[in-house]
Amino acid sequence: MKNKEIKYPIKFEPILKEKIWGGEKLIKLLGKKSDKKNIGESWEISDVNDDVSVVANGFLKGKTLKEIIVEYGDKLVGENVYTKFGNKFPLLIKFIDAKTPLSIQLHPNDELAKKRHNSFGKTEMWYVMQADKKSNLIVGFKENINSKVYLNHLNNKNLVDILNFEEAKKGDAYVIGAGRVHSIGEGVLLAEIQQASDITYRIYDWDRKDDNGNYRDLHTKQAIDAIDYKFQENYKTSYSKIENRASKIVSCPYYTTNILPINGKVLIDHFDKDSFVIYMCVKGKVTIEYNSNLSISLNLGETVLIPADLKQFSINSLEQSDLLEIFI
Asked: What is the C-alpha separation between 12 and 64, in angstroms, rounded?
């Protein structure tokens, strides 16, 4: 148990990632600052490898996420979370812009990732913020298959024939469990919530080359026993939206994500949670008012971490705004 208090909403400096498939929406639509033209990801909150977020506001400004977990422990993340994960932040929070399709890929589960990489596995979820016309997502297979069928299609370069394509629409949500084959298609901007892992098995990359004329590495052998070959009748997650109330999109062992549509002023309390709470603004803009007379703005494409010791505050919006609310 740590005795120090934080009690204010924490913003972090985005970590922007250039990608072969990246575009300009993170800059033009979400206001990220960069002079580069192929920004594919904005890591909003990260404690993964060397990509550790740095606090952008308040008395903790300039400190890393790692440093403040060590210093504040359960006051930042919650007692149960700190007991389970110690000084490791358990989630990785991103915005992703796919100007061209990502590779077809999957992620190993906890057991396999621990054995091979000494890492968490990766279960993630997507929330589509914007999609160009005819944009799509690849999520899973369109029928039950096995490793033999999979390898036959992979080797014959017709893997896409057995994959499930979904039209990407604003507000759609998908859970991408460990082992599920997936890809974000051209023209899709989304928010991604995931376990704190950067382990990806790339199985097909559309035969494209990087700027040096090289193909990116594929992970064919590692992927075979990591793939979930089962077909699912409906891959999209259904959920309800109720104005000024948090409604569940997904709850899994790794995180819960709610949708919170705000119009006006809403009093929020988290006395029922033993966890940090993250808000991602996916529509509009809001003001978070806390400690009687203090406030912080949260604009479209911004993310804020509410420490576990800040239990009550209000969120105010002068326009219809949507937040993703994430906690453990």
From this structure: 9
